[in-house]
Amino acid sequence: MTEAKDTKELQWYGAAFLDLLGQSEILERITELPNPDNKEEVAAFFGLIKQSFGLVDMLNDTFKKNIATLGEESSIAKGLPDDQRKQMRVFHSRPIKLHRFSDGVVVFASVREQPDEPALAALSAIWGLLSGCCTIYLIFLSQGYPLRGGIDLGIGLEYKEGELYGPAVHRAYKLESGIAQYPRIVIGEELIKYLQSFESRTAPAGTSENEQKMLFGAKQIAAKCIKLMARDVDGRMILDCLGDSFRLSFIEVGLGQTVYSAFDCVQAQLKDAREKKNFKLASRYLMLHQYFTARMPKWPKRDAS
What CA–CA distance (Å, rounded) separates 288 from 202? Predict the structure, then answer.
């Protein structure tokens, strides 16, 4: 291989690790291929496949569609003056990438700042990462599939297109596997410090008016990202999927009732854990139940239909 092909760049990334819960139990039931002449055996086998491989595919496809929607230029943006439209294109210029990892997905985006892609582009990617994770979390929970996750900032190497390796992924995975405990998405300290750093960031002397506008826009987005988070009962910062910021966005796109289907899942999981006298699982879903109960009064009333 030539030196050019071997050259990879280490840089800072925002990374999320999302895990579909309950997959281990399903995968353990897939022990052998079915007898093709036994219709019941074949049906049962493909039912398990749909709940495992099919569900991971669904997670992958849903997030990709969400990312594609975030990157589209709106009709409003198309009608803006050229300078404002250019700024909007910068806002949506940083790609958010995704690849499957076991029974979950890794979603990531570079936060490197360059002259042609300033901080505004990096912050827009973090916004897309956070809002995308929230959307997927609620949609999947509403369909009976709880997710657990971690999001953080760290150094990474995209050694293949769409495949990230390094501390960024490791940090997100540690938050999911070791800290989250119950279906929630925990935010890492490095990402929080990065977002908070914009509060005191100033434009260097000689910065153009357009660059100052870009920095002002980045500071606003950083503040909005922080508002998407909340302090949980254990002191950890989490993605506040039922908070004020997400609630308004969900209602605008007609998904305001999704939260009630998600709450149905939480109640069903808690009831099942109690009936099985599974203290560990019951305590975890009790915490999630308390989170929902505290925030749902602000959401629109449930449709009677």
Answer: 40
Confidence (pTM): 0.81
CATH class entry, domain 8-226: alpha beta
Distances (CA, A) of 276 to 272, 273, 302: 6, 5, 30
CA atoms within 13 A on the CB side of 196: 7
pLDDT digits (tens, 9 = 90+) for 8-44: 788 999 999 998 876 556 555 666 776 787 777 667 6
Q: Are 173 and 150 in contact (CB under 8 A)?
A: yes
Closest-CA residue to 55 (of 15, 26, 17, 16): 26
Domain ranges of the chain: 8-226, 242-305
In tens, the pLDDT along 61-98 reads 776 676 655 544 434 334 434 554 455 445 455 678 88
One-letter identity of residue 259: V
